[in-house]
Every structure is written in C-alpha cells, then in structure tokens.
C-alpha cells in the first residue's frame, strides 16, 4: 500500500501553508492534539485504534522525485520550497493512548510534537487513519458487548469503502474482540484468524444442492460449513441429515451450517432441532445477513441457538454513525498555548494528559483532563510512542492489544440515556485556557 | 497501491470454493452480473463509477509466491490446488455500462464471463470497488444538481474511510461534475484539478490574523484565499479590506475568502457587502463545513452569494446512505441460466442488456431489461470492455467521462416521491426466467 504512505495523501492547503511557513521562517516546535467532539446518541464511548498505521506512516514519510516534480508542474510552489522537500522527514514525537484504550470526547487520543510544517502536513492522513479505525473498533465493541461469548467474524470487505477500509475494519474489529475475519489479506497482514463458509453461487453452479454439499465436503473434509438457505433453509438442514451416511463414507465432518435469510431466530431453533434429532449435536449454527448490535439484541433476548455471527456491511461502514466529528488542533506553538474559542467549537490549549479513576469495584468512574505536567491521581492514558521520528518500541502483534481492550471492557460502567461519562478539566487546565484566550484576544483586537 | 490488486483481497470462501471447483473439475464458463437492489428513499438514480479500477484489478491479478505460501501455511488447501494458483490469470470478458452512466435498480452494471473459479474469486473486490465509487458519484451528482453552476470541490479525505476511499471519492465526485479536489494524490493520479485555501491552525500559529493573512499572501501572491472565521468572520472580512494597500504593495491578489462556520448564508451576504463596498468585487466567496445537498438547497433558495463550496464528510462517506444493497449473482453456468428465486431476493437469469428509451424532448422515459441477444429498440447501455483478460481500449482520461455524465444529467426526468423510473423486463426475459425457475426447482425436489 504505497499510496497509504505518500506525503501527497493530504489536503493541498497543507502544502501551501508549508511553503508560507518556509517563507516566514516559522520552523519552531508545534503541538497538535486529535480529539473527538460530542458523541451522537448511538455511542457512549470510543475505542482508540489505528496508532500502528500512524506510526508506520510517520516513519516512512518521504517525497519522491516524482512527487516533487508533480508539485513543480502544478506551478503554485517555488524552487526554494520544493528543494526542502527532498530531505523532508518527520522528526517529531508522538504521545498517544495505546490502541484498544476506551476514551471519551475532548480527550486527546494522540499528540504530535514537531516543527510546525511537519506537524501540519500530517494532519489529514492522521485523522483519516484514526477516525476510521476508532469508529470501527467502537462499533464492533458494541456488538461484542451484546454477544460476548459467541464467535464474531468480520464479513465486511465487499461493502467497505475501498480496499484499505476493508482491511482496516478487519483489524479494528479484531482489536474490539471479534474472533476473526473473512478477508484473507487482513489475516495475512495482521495475523488475524480467517473464517469462511460457501456462497449461494456455489450451490447454484451445481445441478442440485445435494451435489454442491457433497463436492464441498469432499474438497474440505475437515472444514465443511454448509449454506442452507439457497432454496429452503429447513429442507437444506434435512438434506444435511439425509446425507449423513454419504458424509461418513468420505470422512467428511460437517462442522457447521449457515443461515443467511428469513426469520433467522425462528429458523435457528428449527434447524437446531433438525440437527439434534439427526444426531448432529456438535454441528455449529452460523448466521449472517444485515446484522448489527440492534438485531443481535433480539437474538440474545430470544436466546436463539446460534453459535457464531458473520457481521458485514453495518459494522464495516459503521452504518448508523458513518463519521465522527473529530479534530486535530494546534494546542501550542513557540512555547505558547493556542486554542479556538469560538462558541461550540472551543478547544483546550496546551499539552494534555488524561487521568482515569476507578471505583472500588474496579469500574471506571471518571477522567480528569489535565496539563501534561500535572501530577494528578489516577491512571495516565497517554504514553510516548515515537521520539525524534523513531518508534520507541517495535510494533507488537494484535493479540495483546485485543486482550488489553477486553480487560477494559470489563471495567466499563453501564450507560443510560441521561448519563454521560464525566471528563472534567483540572483547575490548572481551566486557568491556563483562560490565560490563552485572554492573550489571543488581546492580539486580535 | 499493491494491496488493491492482491488476489487475497477477497473473502476466504472464494478460495475454498475455488478448491472445490478444482476438485470437481468445474471449469466451464460462468456468467455473473452485478446489480443494485431497491433504492432507499434518499436516492432516485445511480451513477456507474469504478469500472477503470475493476479492469486494472482484473488485468493485474496474480498470486505471488508469498501469497501461495501464506495459503499453504493456513493448512486448509492442498498442493494440487495451490499449484494451479502459480499461473492463475483472469482470462474472461467484461461487459459493463461506461463510467458516468445513469442507471437504476435491477440493471446489470457489469457482467463477468469467465471460467467459474475466476469469476467467483473476483466477486468481493468487484463489489468493493463498484459499490463505493457508484455510491459517491450518485451522492455527488445530487449536489451537482442543486448547484450546477457553482465551483464544487471535494474536501473529504480526512473523514473518508481510509486512503483508497479518499482518493476514489475525489475521482467519483469529479466524474459526477465536481470541479476538483483538495486531495493532492488524487489530483496526481487522475489529473483532477486541485484546490486549497488555508486552515485555522495557520492563523493560530501567528500572533495575529493580520500577520497570517500577510504571510500567506506573500508566499502565494497569485493564489491567496483567506480563511475568515478563526476569530470573527465579519471582522476578518474588514481586515482584508483594511489590508488592501499592504496587499497591493506586495503584488498580492486576494482571489477569494472562505467561510467555515456560523450562519453562512447570512454571513455570505454581509461579507459580500463588505468586500463590494471595499472595492473587491472580484474576490470570490467560498463556503465549507458540514455541507451536503440538503444544506445547499437552503443556499440556493436564499440565493446566497457564494461562488464555491468545499464538500467533505457527508459526500465522502455518503452519510445519509453509507452503503447500498447490491449483489454479484451467477446468471449462467455451463450454458444454463441460473437465478435465485427466494422471496424478495429473486434475480433475473441470463446475460442481459439494458435498452434505454427517450421522449421526444430528449428526456429519458424508461428502460427495458432484456436478454443480451434480443434486438430491441432503444440505446443499449452495456458495452464490452475486456476480451479474454485484455482491455479492448486503453484507459482514457476522466474528462470525457465527466462530459458524458453531465450530458446525461440534462436528460434526467424529474422524480417525485411516488414515481420511480420504470425498468421493465422484456417478455422474452420473463419467459426465460420462468423456465429457469422450473428447471432448478425440479432438480431440487
């Protein structure tokens, strides 16, 4: 994915501003933080995800000759500036919440500290990476909450918004507790377990469902999951039972069956009974088709005998909330705090830390939003991951990240419509913010 | 974007089915067609987009040694099958509606004719490419309809679902009549005009708005667009007027100003008056911030003096309809028509063509959905683009595609809530479908 690392994967204004910074000799250290604004009613919390791809992007950011030639032909840049791009590197620091961290609005999920032009250029891609993976992990986490003990598999690639979205949705949902994905490339890239069954077209390519079941079983005797609904789900289940002797003859173990249409809660009961009565008590039932946390709630309430779910479109597009209002804002430049103070869009200035507090029973109680150098009680959530453009630790696998998230999920309080989790600015942060407002307003009278 | 061409960018079941087809010697020609199901109330029509990326994918599809090793380590495939992947190529035909074609539910937008395993493998990525770009082009077209004569610029990259989504949204919105994009890499890859202004952080990095305006102007004297709302939009506009002499001294032309918050319709009037009274009648006004066709409708109705719009999140995520129900279905195998005939999900069998009819005044009247070999009146919409795995024509630029779409837009009828565009199956197609149902049901009794 070379394009995913290109410095041209940015908004044009980042480059025109870079030239202006160059012309004005504005090379001092700037600090930007990314945070999410107020959550929509469909979400109570967020799950940080995508930091690994941000670090990879920052470590590999280079303008190729071809990139610079393209900008030269554009005609809006001068040679003095273009020449600086040849040796451009990201040389800054990155502090961030580890992936899998549960967080809330106004809390910085990542902080970039770097010479102004560098910190500015990377804005677009950092938001692009972190908003998407965080959105997907946050959606998948809700599904995991409804079905904590079932097999959950990402089926979303086909309706994801492009290749990267499909791959990264597999990654983000795995972090949030899914068991695996159907997307082969995501399995390869991130060592995620890969799941799969068969499609309707497989059945339709055969003259009969019987032949299709037998052919698939003979090709995958240890890994046979049969799709039942191409013609009629219950008749499909009965066919599986009728074929028991044939399967046995060819040493085929039918590990599971899949339902993909109809009233799947009712069908799962009937199919379970057909399988149990036919002596296939160990054969698992999978369900798929337009599922999300809202529909899974019904499966849960009605105790449907489904062992695993394939979750596609609605998770991979975060269909009920397909974007979040998040911003990457300058909080300091040349050692001075900076902020926006326009109504409804004001931001907290300065380098910040989040301190989390827990109740005696281990459940999260509230967070303090404080200045980085404050020594407050609680668990600090941001840690340093990059120093002077280099990672502090090599990338680690996702298994630990997933465990870290799943542990946190056990500390999540219950939410109701009235109550949002408390994120309180510290007194020192409030005082600092007021002083920044006062200074900025004075300069712009 | 190597990953975007990987044969592993697919669902695992495509590979397990391929092995089963291999084991059963099912290598005959199969035909699949991709179509969209019923549209949601927010959409009246669709705009085909993404064919170029599908052709590029099909032409370059290769399993690397590394890919095959990965599948070997997975343990669910046998050597006889894995060995066939070394020389795997897509050798089929592609018929499709050209990009920019306006189309409707049930109409095949692409047809793949290839040996069964090939046609099966590519399903996931073809849907992934075509659904997304078609969704974005269809959304952008609605914006173009509301604002046919304004400058429309894609600002969406940061909240797009990953890198590819951002790049391809720039492409799809350009096809649908946008004037350009802020995404530099999309401009480079597809020769799309690139637009940009400045960010709030640029203003905030300076001690005063005055210094920020001046520095930007000096760095980009012919390309200065100033962001007005960092502190106060009207005061920002007055500052531009006050600085007229300074700008003149440095040969700076202020081409435009940008509004990004507040009541932008009212503000655009006030800012226009301030600029006009200050002698800057030629300075353009741009607006951005959470815009889509619904909010632009108000700008239009109230005749707001805005010359151009930056359209971001809601277009690039197609926020009101972030996915479509579309399917890639087998319509023929071994010379026999195939279909699904389950309730509400039935599909039309056979290789099909769409014939479009126009009224005397040139406006589209209705489409016939027919078998490919029928000779009906009307304009056929599907054409052949690939033969035996090779493109018939080299890729052409987007300018012609954009013109083709814009011409069609002039032939679009007006829609109202009650009336949907008529897509009528031909009598021959209906008869054929019935015969296919009859045969398939007989075989599965």
UniProtKB/TrEMBL annotation, chains A, B:
Q: What is the stated purpose of this protein? A: Catalyzes the first step in the biosynthesis of NAD from nicotinic acid, the ATP-dependent synthesis of beta-nicotinate D-ribonucleotide from nicotinate and 5-phospho-D-ribose 1-phosphate.
GO BP term, example = NAD+ biosynthetic process via the salvage pathway
SUPFAM superfamilies membership: Nicotinate/Quinolinate PRTase C-terminal domain-like, Nicotinate/Quinolinate PRTase N-terminal domain-like
Domain (Nicotinate/nicotinamide phosphoribosyltransferase): residue spans on this chain: 152-329
Please give the name of this protein: Nicotinate phosphoribosyltransferase
What sequence ranges are listed for the domain Nicotinate phosphoribosyltransferase N-terminal? 8-130
Question: What Gene3D superfamilies does UniProt report for this protein, alphabetically?
Answer: Aldolase class I, nicotinate phosphoribosyltransferase
Q: Which domain of life is it from?
A: Bacteria
Task: Spell out the GO cellular component terms annotated for this protein, sorted alphabetically and separated by semicolons.
Answer: cytosol
Show the CDD domains listed in the entry.
NAPRTase_A
Q: What class of enzyme is it?
A: ligase
Name the lineage.
Bacteria, Pseudomonadati, Thermodesulfobacteriota, Desulfobulbia, Desulfobulbales
Q: Which GO terms describe its molecular function?
A: nicotinamide phosphoribosyltransferase activity; nicotinate phosphoribosyltransferase activity
Question: What keywords were assigned to this record?
Answer: Glycosyltransferase, Ligase, Phosphoprotein, Pyridine nucleotide biosynthesis, Transferase
Q: What's its EC?
A: 6.3.4.21
What protein family does this chain belong to? Belongs to the NAPRTase family.
Which species is the source of this protein?
Answer: Desulfopila aestuarii DSM 18488
Q: Which reaction does it catalyse?
A: 5-phospho-alpha-D-ribose 1-diphosphate + nicotinate + ATP + H2O = nicotinate beta-D-ribonucleotide + ADP + phosphate + diphosphate
Describe how it is modified after translation: Transiently phosphorylated on a His residue during the reaction cycle. Phosphorylation strongly increases the affinity for substrates and increases the rate of nicotinate D-ribonucleotide production. Dephosphorylation regenerates the low-affinity form of the enzyme, leading to product release.
Its pathway, per UniProt, is: Cofactor biosynthesis; NAD(+) biosynthesis; nicotinate D-ribonucleotide from nicotinate: step 1/1
